[in-house]
Write a structure and sequence with these properties.
Largest sheet: 5 strands, mixed
Order of helices and strands: EEHHEHEHEHEHEEEEEEHEHHHEE
Radius of gyration: 18 Å
Shape: globular
Number of helices: 10
Number of strands: 15
Structural class: alpha+beta
Strand content: 25-35%
Length: about 325
């Protein structure tokens, strides 16, 4: 038994917020400063009270419609998020309730920007085992809630959004290979080093990042895990039709493609309009490229992510 993606959906909250909009809000920055360093020109920001499960709900409805399924058909729901609605219950359980599903296995995955790749790999394993047949896999984030808006080195990079896929059991393979890794020794270069104790925030509740260290680490491991995933599928990186990396920074995307010897016209890029949406970035980009028909049936698409932890991974799929 294999697994295939049969439906894809995404959702971005509100209207696009430009770099100039951020400058007008009092952040000491400019469009030239942000775009020249990151390639980012716009991002979407959730309204007050709009949660990860709210964004996930809209993306999930669109993915289910694409698959021709009802929420009641699902027997597995996995949400990748670093910005859950609550400490508990999981965002997956809250999404399950909003969808009206009862009884499906539901849980969250916390692997930050690699979260969707982790969650998709987990769903593939569940389906291949024969224990489950129809999974909803979601990446959903409201990173605007954990940003220090006085720190222009980080606050301009991120946005909010959600992407979802339906994965079903199939006689024909659709998820061709996967590879996941982590190394907690690097946790200090990207983290939100805070928690809640006794009703108070302890530590630092905002995202902190060593940008140069993240860049060097990300480019190396994204290229390595892509090659590992291709080897597992018995192909070379040159056989990939499309590369969809985590949308963090255009320079990381360009350096990864160069290291893999892939032209940039094989790389799906949405970071310019979405910013870094963490676990949502890969499914958002996948949905856009399917909807605009760049991605065609039978093509090989490599999805990959890298994020705080440090975590990284790749999934090779064919739609």
């Amino acid at each position: 038994m294999f697994s295939r993606i049969t439906g894809i959906g995404s959702f971005l909250p509100g209207e696009p917020v430009s770099n100039d909009d951020l400058a007008r809000r009092g952040i000491e920055t400019s469009d030239q400063w942000i775009s020249s360093r990151t390639g980012i020109r716009f991002r979407h920001l959730a309204e007050n009270g709009e949660t990860s499960s709210d964004l996930a709900l809209e993306a999930s409805r669109r993915a289910l419609a694409g698959a021709g399924l009802a929420a009641s058909d699902l027997d597995l729901i996995i949400v990748a998020t670093s910005t859950p609605d609550y400490i508990f219950p999981s965002t997956a359980c809250l999404l399950q309730s909003k969808l009206g599903n009862h009884g499906a296995t539901a849980f969250d995955v916390q692997a930050v920007c690699s979260g969707f790749v982790y969650a998709l790999t987990i769903a593939d394993k569940f389906i291949r085992s024969g224990s489950h047949r129809r999974a909803l896999v979601v990446g959903s984030e409201v990173f605007s809630r954990i940003l220090d808006w006085s720190d222009r080195a980080t606050c301009v990079l991120f946005g909010d959004g959600a992407g979802a896929v339906v994965v079903e059991a199939s006689e024909q393979p659709g998820i061709l290979a996967t590879a996941l890794h982590a190394d907690g020794a690097h946790h200090g270069i990207l983290s939100v080093p805070g928690s809640v104790c006794g009703g108070q925030v302890t530590g630092d509740p905002f995202l902190r990042m060593d940008g140069q260290a993240v860049f060097k680490f990300a480019v190396r491991v994204l290229a390595e895990v892509a090659e590992e995933c291709c080897r597992a599928a018995g192909i070379s990186p040159a056989d990939i039709d499309w590369l969809i990396p985590h949308q963090a920074n255009i320079r990381i995307l360009e350096a990864t493609a160069k290291r893999m010897k892939l032209p940039m016209d094989k790389v799906i890029v949405t970071v310019d309009r979405h910013g870094n949406t963490s676990a949502a970035s890969v499914p958002l980009a996948l949905d856009e490229a399917v909807r605009d028909r760049r991605i065609q049936a039978g093509q090989k698409i490599l999805l990959e992510g890298v994020g705080g932890g440090f975590t990284w991974g790749a999934v090779l799929i064919e739609l």
